[in-house]
Design goal:
56% helix, globular, alpha/beta, 5 strands
Amino acid sequence: MLKVGLTGGIGSGKSTASNYLRTLGAYVFDADKEAKDLIDNNDTVQHELISEFSTDIINIEGQVDKKKLSRVAFQDDDHQERLNAVVHPHVYDLIDSSYNKAINDNKYNIFIVDAALVYESGLDSHLDYVIVVTAQLKFRMERSLSRNTLTREEILKRMDFQWPEEEKVNASDFVIHNDTSEEDLQSKLKEILSKLI
């Protein structure tokens, strides 16, 4: 079973794409969701993060507070790399175990790893193909702001921590320009899937 990365910058439509791939019979591993779950619930990851970033990131219960962690981790490249060095190895282990489970279940046609940092983390070297979803900056900003979770400044800061769109596009096997409708996005995904399966 092919292991395919799906990536794209914030607001590109990557999550919409992965949800649609799931309806087409793909096993979708949501790396960003799993990373958040590890930070919330995995004692080893919590201890490693506290030893890396000190008690500045904990709440009154002594647990990692994701908002505090986010403020610390997204202040510069060094802090971002330190966060990733703690979390990514645990995510890779989960990808491997989920992939083996998906093979044993024998009911999926393809294994998709939905991850914002496929190239930045080096995950691309463990995948058969990578699909990049990209969009013009104005559309990415509109979509990101409509979620009401981050300010314009926070969105731009997160964009700065990711590879530039052009670099991801040049490194990828398949590119989807998501500047029109959701139907168009779905049509492009179907076309790519028909080439892979």
